[in-house]
């Protein structure tokens, strides 16, 4: 196990192997098997690129050889900061083959997040596009390298400037030692509830089981065509079942660069897409657009919605509008994945967030003292199972806070469990704003805002929003003249924070409400500002 990671105790390792959840397979080895079985069957469609399984396998081998020649070795960490394009898949599988670990950053991340990830992981390389949505990622890489001295190589998909062109990292395939299935295969990002993202180690064996089991739950097969509308670096579209689960079933993955109806509907029609994954706000946009679109969406069989709670009214409206079955998905990069099942009654699909994928996922709902609660009572969800991490990477403080003595993960989610085992998500115990599926850690944003010269104190809270579920509201006590919302957003942009973390709203206050023990009451602040305010700019 990689230094800085926490392994499962031996009794659990034996149990999960004996049950068949964990197999002696690696993620890089899985692609070899898929290529043998499916060969020329189309694996990936990305713009003008159309590769079969054998071609994807060949390209992964050649890039792996090029990475080794560059000096990337087993156990090294590489921050992968790519959008939905063919290079994303090749880079990940090449790193799996080398035994190096992709650290999957999101396209929306900027200086603050990327520098943190590079420093935390001691990344030896950073992989970026040349530009995306008007942003020059080479300039971003220059700034990151100045803050993360471990980064020896910047690999650029496109025009590389002074960096290494990814297309030139190539070589004749070489025999490489196969990583142990017990080793960490990749590092995913936590949704983050305090400060910058934490890193989640996922092993070859546990992630292999997760993608395989989720594909089975969703009924995927060789005829399945999955549209990756959300960024593939997200755990949801990556392997629940997502990109990797589709390939495990012999299906085809289609990468979308624009998840809007204008970008996605033509792909659904042209590629005969059968399944895709969305966050609730995007699902609502698709449902409304389907009423006027002349695109043929008849191939779409299953729409997964996750990342945030889908209101029951929307859950009932979406399948009718899009002409497909709905599946609610409630999961986390830490490993737990819940699905409504394909044979669940419509009311269960509309009103619950599913039940655990694995029959040996242990779920308990507890009160504030960790005492178990009966079905129907609302409490914190705690989980333990073959896909659920036992500790964050290099973060003993978070591990002490996030795990019970018997190894259950404290999710921070408030849920009710029904007698059927289905979960109803009621909210979050920890301080995070779920902005349309993007998790905004309020303490991180507050830390940055406190550096603004006009801000004496600040508290960021989530306020209800019909479209996104929640929006962020910065409650500011100014030093003198109050800053404007535009000034705060520009300040955060200059500090390299991802745009989805910028506050949507500003409220200027003289003081904060406090609890009986003197702490700021976030709940009281959020309740105060649930109505629209004029202080938005």
TrEMBL record:
* Name of the protein this chain belongs to: 2,3-dihydroxybenzoate-AMP ligase
* SUPFAM superfamilies to which the protein is assigned, alphabetical: Acetyl-CoA synthetase-like
Q: Name one Pfam family in it.
A: AMP-binding
Instruction: Quote the PROSITE patterns the UniProt record gives.
Output: AMP_BINDING (PS00455)
Name the Gene Ontology molecular function terms of this record.
acid-thiol ligase activity
| Limits of the AMP-dependent synthetase/ligase domain | 33-393
PANTHER family assigned = LONG-CHAIN-FATTY-ACID--COA LIGASE, NONRIBOSOMAL PEPTIDE SYNTHASE PES1 (EUROFUNG)-RELATED
Q: Which residues form the AMP-binding enzyme C-terminal domain?
A: 444-519
The record's keywords, sorted A to Z, are: Ligase
């Amino acid at each position: 196990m990689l230094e800085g990671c926490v392994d499962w105790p031996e009794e659990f390792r034996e149990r999960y192997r004996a049950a068949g959840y964990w197999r002696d397979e690696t993620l890089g080895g899985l692609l070899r098997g898929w290529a043998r079985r499916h060969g020329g069957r189309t694996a990936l469609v990305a713009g003008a690129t159309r590769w079969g399984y054998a071609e994807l396998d060949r390209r992964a081998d050649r890039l792996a050889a090029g990475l080794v020649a560059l000096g990337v070795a087993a156990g090294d960490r590489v921050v992968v900061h790519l959008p939905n394009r063919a290079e994303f898949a090749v880079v990940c599988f090449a790193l799996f083959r080398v035994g190096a670990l992709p650290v999957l950053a999101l396209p929306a991340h900027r200086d603050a997040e990327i520098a943190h990830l590079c420093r935390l992981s001691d990344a030896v390389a950073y992989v970026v596009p040349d530009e995306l949505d008007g942003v020059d990622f080479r300039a971003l890489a220059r700034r990151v390298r100045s803050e993360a001295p471990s980064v020896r190589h910047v690999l650029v998909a496109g025009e590389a400037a002074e960096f290494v062109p990814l297309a030139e990292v190539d070589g004749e395939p070489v025999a490489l030692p196969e990583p142990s299935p017990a080793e960490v295969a990749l590092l995913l990002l936590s949704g983050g509830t305090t400060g910058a993202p934490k890193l989640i180690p996922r092993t070859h064996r546990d992630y292999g089981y997760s993608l395989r089991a989720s594909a089975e739950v969703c009924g995927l097969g060789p005829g399945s065509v999955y549209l990756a509308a959300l960024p593939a670096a997200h755990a949801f579209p990556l392997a629940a079942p997502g990109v990797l689960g589709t390939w495990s079933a012999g299906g085809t993955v289609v990468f979308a660069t624009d998840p809007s109806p204008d970008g996605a509907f033509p792909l659904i029609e042209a590629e005969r897409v059968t399944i895709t994954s969305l966050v609730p706000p995007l699902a609502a946009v698709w449902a409304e657009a389907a009423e006027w679109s002349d695109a043929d969406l008849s191939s779409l069989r299953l729409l997964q919605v996750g990342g945030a709670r889908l209101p029951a009214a929307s859950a009932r409206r979406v399948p009718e509008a899009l002409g497909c079955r709905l599946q609610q998905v409630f999961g986390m990069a830490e490993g737990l994945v819940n699905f409504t099942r394909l044979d669940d009654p419509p009311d269960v699909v509309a009103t619950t967030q599913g039940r655990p994928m694995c029959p040996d996922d242990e779920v308990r709902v507890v009160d504030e003292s960790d005492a178990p609660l009966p079905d129907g009572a609302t409490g914190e969800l705690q989980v333990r199972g073959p896909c659920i991490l036992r500790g964050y990477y290099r973060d003993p403080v978070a591990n002490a806070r996030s795990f019970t003595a018997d190894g259950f993960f404290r999710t921070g989610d408030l849920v009710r469990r029904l007698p059927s085992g289905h979960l109803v998500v009621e909210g979050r115990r920890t301080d995070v704003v779920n902005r349309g599926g993007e998790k905004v850690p309020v303490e991180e944003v507050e830390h940055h805002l406190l550096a603004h010269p006009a801000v004496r104190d600040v508290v960021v809270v989530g306020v209800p929003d019909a479209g996104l579920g929640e929006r962020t509201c910065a409650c500011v006590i100014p030093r003198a003249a109050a800053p404007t919302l535009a000034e705060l957003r520009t300040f955060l942009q200059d500090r390299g924070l991802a745009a989805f973390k910028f506050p949507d709203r500003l409220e200027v206050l003289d003081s904060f409400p406090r609890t009986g023990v003197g702490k700021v009451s976030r709940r009281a602040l959020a309740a105060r500002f649930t109505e629209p305010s004029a202080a938005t700019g």
